[in-house]
Amino acid sequence: PNVSATAPTITCAVPVVTISTTATPANVTYRWVGPGITAANQTQATPQVSVAGTYTVTVRATNGCTNTATVTVVADQQPPQGVSTTGATLTCAQPTRTITATSTTAGVTYSWTGPNNFTSTLQTPTVSTGGTYTVVITSPSNGCSTSATATVQTDQQPPSVTAQGGIVTCAAPSLALTATSNPVNVNWAWTGPGGFNSTQQSPQATAAGVYTLTVTNPANGCTASATATVVSDQQPPQLTIPAPGLLTCNTTQVNVTVQVSPTGSYTYQWTTQGGVISSGANSATAVATAAGQYAVLVTSQQNGCTATAATQVVADSATIRGAQLAPKAVSCFGRKDGSVRVLSVQGGTPPYLYGIGNNALSPQMEFSALAPGSYTLNIQDVNGCEWSTTFTIGEPGELIVELGADTTIYLGDVIRINIDDVVNFPGRVVTRRLEPVEWADSLGRELRPLKSFRYSLTVVDSNGCRASDTRLVVVDKTRFVYIPNVFTPEVAGPNATFFISARYPNHVTKVKSLLIFDRWGSAVFERFNFAPNDPTQGWDGQVRGSKGLPGVYVYYAEIEFIDGETILYKGDVTIMR
User: Fold this and answer.
1) Residue 181: CA atoms inside 13 Å, Cβ hemisphere, count?
2) What is the mean pLDDT of residues 484-491?
3) pLDDT digits (tens, 9 = 90+) for 337-361
4) Of residues 204 and 448, which shows the higher confidence score?
5) Distance (Å, rounded) from C-alpha 151 to C-alpha 133?
6) What pLDDT shows up at residue 493?
7) Count of alpha carbons within 13 angstroms of residue 561, beta-carbon side
8) Which residues, listed in sequence order, are joined to residue 388 by a DSSP beta bridge?
9) pLDDT (0 to 100) of residue 436
10) For residue 494, what pLDDT is reported?
11) pLDDT of 413-439, one tens digit each?
12) Residue 283 contacts residue 256 (beta carbons within 8 Å)
């Protein structure tokens, strides 16, 4: 017989194929051999197999003749290749993301499944739920599939945030809002009353109300909110001052009391215009002893808020309310010629009696012979009502002349007499007198007095106050004259000549004469009317043209000084050779 066989390709879509045979003549029997042949299909004309390989069929005709045919069954069951997936992370800033699957096999199809019954046939679907997503990738050419997974992470944890406000008061009109967050690296956004907004963690708030804080984690965009309440305690105290009593000559003081609500701890400060606070200036009740306006400043120690109130203390018009005085200072320092005169009295009923200190009262309105100082004046009206006030008798500063300390100068020295800047209050001086008067023409000039003298300055101010000072200038007439007692004519130098020296040449007018005698009384040298300190005017040791013998000689020198006095100096001098 004739026989042939064919078979399709095994795929994932067609995992079982039928091998087809054609045999002539008909009515043949079949026996198959191959990897997919079993006892059940080995005699079938068209067996179904699921295993690729070589299959051989033997056919037998009715006449006993046989023939064989071979067919190869090919399998194409390779799944898609090069499969990979990419997951994602969901955040508050990105609540949806895409996941992706890829394959190097062309034309594949995708089938995704995931949390919450998620399905998609897109290669890159969009997801909004974290979890594991499975994709089945199918090749259209053979229907083979493979699967893979993609993980979607979630980072959507909001930050943990707390916020706290506080109380604003008059003492502390602003406060810092406080906030904490976990994590700490967040963005802060405050909103509040009056359009308040801030990006600081702890901004300053002044208005009462609810403040909302929103924090954002920049890592995932997640936010959280909290609120802080600022309460205002800025209510000032409420003050009431009941009308104080009336001041009379019998009621010399009244209480001025402020009533404060609500009950609490307060400080008080009373002041007055025209009145007198004798006590209680820092308490709720002040004691007033004179008519005038009394005001109080009350401060709450709880919130620092303040309030003021004022009232008027009135004195009975029949009561002495005051007096106008005209005190007069003493004329000069240390005198007791001050006075005071009462010009007018306000209130009370005349006639009045007056008295200073503890002295008896009298109608006398002027008091004199007062020393400098503070005094109390007492006034009593005809009804016996009394009123007291204080006044001060002033005193001008002491007028002082200071010429300077007494001084000593040497004869011929220069001194300058000056009376400028010697009075402590020069603007008060109206007259001045210098004694002796002849020195007036010498003021400010350089003088060389020849004898000691004393001068004084007396000044008088506009009140007749007098001050003076005296200064003594002593002229020391010590004669600084040097006459040697030995000289050496043979040795060059300052001792080669016998001559007269003066420490201060200007103290000496001239040497009137210098006479030198030997031991027998014979004159050996003489010189007249010459200046000191000049060796050329001295004796060189020559006696009548020859060298004088060594030995002792006697000298007489008349020296006239600038004060007109002539002094005779005598002694001996020795020539050494």
Assistant:
1) 25
2) 92
3) 999 999 999 988 899 999 999 999 9
4) 204
5) 6
6) 84
7) 21
8) 378
9) 84
10) 84
11) 888 888 888 999 988 999 988 888 877
12) no
- Distance, in Å, from the CA atom of 328 to the CA atom of 344, rounded to the nearest integer, reads 16
Q: For residue 410, which amino acid is it?
A: Y
Residue in the structure block whose two tokens are 């403040």 = 211
Is-contact 549 495, C-beta < 8 A?
no
Residue 561 tokens, joined: 């000084």
And the tokens for 113? 């499944």
Residue 414 burial (C-beta neighbours within 10 Å; 0-12, 13-18, 19+)? exposed
CA distances (Å), origin 332, targets 314, 367, 430, 442: 42, 18, 14, 32
Q: What is the dihedral of CA 47, 49, 55, 58, to 10 degrees?
A: -20
Closest CA to 268 of 243, 293, 237: 237
Sequence-distant (≥ 6) Cβ neighbours of residue 63 within 8 angstroms: none
Pairing state of beta strands 175-176 and 109-114?
unpaired
User: Is the confidence at residue 252, as pLDDT, over 90?
Assistant: no
Q: Kindly list the distances between the CA atom of residue 359 and the CA atoms of 104, 250, 379, in Å, as whole numbers in the listed order.
A: 130, 22, 12
* Residue 112 · residue 124 · CB < 8 Å: no
Give buried/exposed letters for 305-332 (b at 16+ CB in 10 A, else e). Answer: bbbebebebebbeebbbbbeeebebbbb
Position 250 pLDDT exceeds 80: no
Closest CA to 452 of 418, 499, 407, 482: 407
What DSSP string describes 24-82?
A: ESSS-EEEEESTT--TTTTT-SS-EE-S-EEEEEEEE-TTS-EEEEEEEE-EE-PPPPS
Tell how strand 276-279 and strand 100-102 pair up.
unpaired
3-state class (DSSP) for residue 427: helix
What's the angle, vertex CA 535, arms to CA 533 and CA 540, rounded to 5?
A: 145
Distance between start and end Cα atoms, the chain: 189
Phi, psi (rounded to 5 degrees) for 145: -130, 160
Closest CA to 129 of 145, 112, 110: 112
The encoded tokens of residue 320 equal 């002495």
**Three-class HEC string of 480-523:** CEECCCEECCCCCCHHHCECCEECCHHHEEEEEEEEEECCCCCE
Q: Do the beta carbons of residue 275 and residue 292 sit within 8 Å? A: yes
Is the pLDDT at 440 greater than 80? The verdict is no
Pairing of strands 118-120, 160-164: unpaired
Tokens coding 100 = 């992706």
Cis upstream peptide for 489 (omega within 30°): no
pLDDT in tens, 268-290: 999 999 999 999 999 999 999 99
Burial 4-21 (b: 16+ CB within 10 A, else e): ebebeebbbeeeebebeb
pTM of the model: 0.48
Q: State the Cα–Cα distance between residues 164 and 183, nearest whole angstrom.
A: 18
- What is the distance between the alpha carbons of residues 170 and 483, in angstroms, rounded to a whole number? 98
Identify the three-state secondary structure at position 416: strand
Task: Give the residue carrying structure tokens 């001086």.
Answer: 429
Nearest 5 degrees, angle CA 329-CA 331-CA 335? 95
Whether residue 202 contacts residue 176, with contact meaning beta carbons closer than 8 Å, is answered with: yes
* Residue 209: strand, helix, or coil: strand
Kindly report, residue by residue over 187-237, the tens digit of the pLDDT: 999 999 999 999 999 999 999 999 999 999 999 999 999 999 999 999 999
